[in-house]
Structures are given as structure tokens and as C-alpha cells.
Automatic annotation (TrEMBL):
Main location: membrane
Comp. bias regions, Polar residues: 317-337
Protein's name according to its UniProt entry: Lipopolysaccharide heptosyltransferase 1
Cellular component annotations (GO), alphabetically ordered: cytosol; plasma membrane
InterPro entries, alphabetized: Glyco_trans_9, LipoPS_heptosylTferase-I, LPS_LOS_Heptosyltrfase
Pfam families in the cross-refs: Glyco_transf_9
Annotated region (Disordered), positions in chain: 316-337
Lineage: Bacteria, Pseudomonadati, Pseudomonadota, Betaproteobacteria, Burkholderiales
Pathway annotation: Bacterial outer membrane biogenesis; LPS core biosynthesis
């Protein structure tokens, strides 16, 4: 086995949770080169993993929104780059039309995809000449690892290795030192996933009383307003400036605790081995949550968001013992496993 292509196109949380597949493949096949095809919006996150040889990216989301000619040219160029190598195996662990098209265009002897009943879009089946086994009865993240391992005939270590190495920053973020930082990720891609600002305020005050500095990130003007509304309820809370994903990752790395809704940056906190509590209100906690007893936990459920006492109990469950993540003040470029 010389070269393998992973196809996982979007989104941030899914990309992060797919990273352990890279370590699995490289343990099973020590000399293999692993390439990854993804949307350009998430390519940098994949590049943080030194186990990936090439990141093949195209601005698919950007072109869909803006229909810009330059983006179309970039997509065409990415196709040429994709076909520059011949793969022993292509594994599409996304299972929708766009990922299937990428898998089909790539040059490879075996193109693995999910069984029809497990595909996100049934029409994606045209691209595959081999199939993963039935979807295992486990969460989505471990399920991807099981599917690839069974298809390629190896066993994997149950402890996921994200192997994230954050690049250095071009500017100082002025992250406060001294009191431990708790980041509250209140913003999400969908309103149905959100938690009431009064609840965030109550959690923020509870954490402040226990010595934490509260940091509130945001991405859009609306989210900035929501962060300011929460900060008004939490004396001393910091509304952060607008951050890039890399800058946000460095803030996460410097934090002692991350509490947030079901969103990609909270998955990143889990991968960076921060103490993490993820809140669910409109998606399946069992299927998409994070769980590492004593460090990461998910609460709530689709249609049944957690109440404040449940979240406080979850925070206590991940902060009551010594951290296994290392000091938040360790070098920002250090490898995280």
C-alpha cells in the first residue's frame, strides 16, 4: 500500500473528527502516503495534521454562493492536481454526491463507499467499486474508523489520535494569563441548536465565582451582539475580537474549559484535549457527541436541550480531576494527541 486518498469534504466538526483515520492508516501501513480531498474552507485544519501528505482542496462552497469565475478556475485546477497521483485505495467517508464525484474523478484501483442504505445521498453509489460493511452500532466518529479499518483489514487503537500541530501565529492575541479561561461557544449554524442567553449568563456567573475568566467568541455581527448580551449578564466576561479559525484554536489551546453548543469549534476543543462540555438541542448526542470520561462529555438531546443544573453537573464531571491534556500554557506548536 503506497498511497491512499481520504475524501471528507465538509464541515469543520466532521473534518476534525476524521483526523484520527490518518493516524490509523499510518499505523497500519507505516510507509503509506495519505492524501485528503476537502472543501477549501477546511483545508487548513487538515494541514495541521503532519500525517497528511497532500491536501487537495477546491472552493466548492464559495463557488456555490458567489458563482465567481476565478473560483471555477480554481476548481478546474484542483481536478488536475487530484488526478496527478494514482491511488491504491480511495475511501469516501462522506457519502454524498460531491464526495462521490471527487472519488470517481480520482485515479484509483479501489474506491470504497458506504452501502446504499448508509449513504447521505443514494445517488452517490455510482462512484464506488467496493463497499464498506454495514454501518457499525457506534457513534459517527468511531464508525468512520471502524468502516475504513474493516475494509482495509487492520485493527485500530481505540484512543483516537488527532495529531494536531497548530502553526505559530503572526500576531499576539493578548490572551490573559493567571486565572483559568472558560470559553463559551454560544453561537451555532442553526437557531434550533442555540441555548438561551439567560442560561449562558447563569453558567458564566457560576464559573466566574469559581475563578474562571469567561471568553465569548463570535463569527458574525449577529453573534457579536449575542456575545455582548451574554457578557452583560456576566461581570468581567470578555467579548473576543473576530478571530480566524487558527486564532480561535490558539484561544482554545490556552483555555482550561470549553462549554459550547453542537458546533465544529467545540469538536476542535475536544480534539485539542481541553476539558469540554457539548450541549445538544436539535441533533443526536449519542451519534454526534464527544465523550472521554473525566475530560469531555455531551449533554442534552434532539428536542430536549439540557437545563442549567445538567450543564453545571457536566462541567463538574470534567473539572473535578487532574487534566490529562497538559498545561494550557504549553507551547502553541506542540503536538496534541
Amino acid at each position: 500500500m503506497k498511497r491512499i486518498l481520504i475524501v471528507k469534504v465538509t464541515s469543520l466538526g466532521d473534518i476534525v473528527e476524521t483526523l484520527p483515520v490518518v493516524a490509523d492508516l499510518r499505523r497500519a501501513f507505516p510507509s503509506v502516503k495519505v492524501d485528503w480531498a476537502a472543501d477549501a474552507a477546511f483545508a487548513d485544519i487538515i494541514r495541521w495534521n503532519p500525517g497528511v501528505d497532500r491536501v487537495l482542496s477546491a472552493p466548492l462552497r464559495k463557488f456555490k454562493k458567489a458563482r465567481n469565475w476565478n473560483d471555477l478556475k480554481d476548481i478546474a485546477a484542483s481536478i488536475s492536481e487530484l488526478r496527478a497521483e494514482k491511488y491504491d485505495v480511495i475511501v469516501d467517508i462522506h457519502g454524498v454526491y460531491k464526495s462521490a464525484i471527487i472519488a470517481f474523478i480520482a485515479r484509483g484501483r479501489r474506491r470504497f463507499g458506504y452501502l446504499n442504505k448508509d449513504l447521505g445521498e443514494r445517488g452517490a453509489a455510482f462512484a464506488y467499486n467496493a463497499r464498506f460493511g454495514p454501518r457499525p452500532l457506534t457513534d459517527a466518529w468511531r464508525g468512520m474508523r471502524v468502516s475504513v479499518a474493516e475494509a482495509l483489514g487492520y485493527r485500530f487503537d481505540e484512543t483516537p489520535d488527532y495529531n494536531i500541530q497548530l502553526p505559530a501565529l503572526a500576531r499576539d492575541l493578548n490572551i490573559p494569563r493567571g486565572a483559568p479561561i472558560a470559553m463559551l461557544f454560544h453561537a451555532t449554524s442553526a437557531d434550533v441548536k442555540k441555548w438561551p442567553k439567560e442560561h449562558w449568563g447563569e453558567v458564566g456567573r457560576w464559573l466566574t465565582a469559581r475563578g474562571y475568566t469567561i471568553a465569548l467568541p463570535w463569527g458574525t455581527e449577529r453573534e457579536q451582539g449575542e456575545a455582548q448580551a451574554i457578557a452583560a449578564l456576566v461581570p468581567g466576561a470578555i467579548v473576543l475580537p473576530k478571530l480566524s479559525v487558527l486564532e480561535c484554536a490558539h484561544w482554545i489551546r490556552a483555555s482550561e474549559l470549553v462549554v459550547g453548543a453542537d458546533t465544529g469549534l467545540v469538536h476542535l476543543a475536544h480534539a485539542l484535549q481541553r476539558r469540554t462540555v457539548m450541549l445538544f438541542a436539535a441533533t443526536s448526542r449519542e451519534h454526534f457527541g464527544v465523550n472521554d470520561p473525566g475530560r469531555s462529555v455531551s449533554v442534552g438531546e434532539d428536542g430536549a436541550p439540557p437545563d442549567v443544573p445538567q450543564v453545571l453537573a457536566a462541567i463538574e464531571s470534567v473539572t473535578s480531576g487532574p487534566s490529562r491534556a497538559g498545561s494550557p500554557s504549553s507551547e502553541s506548536g506542540a503536538m496534541i494527541r
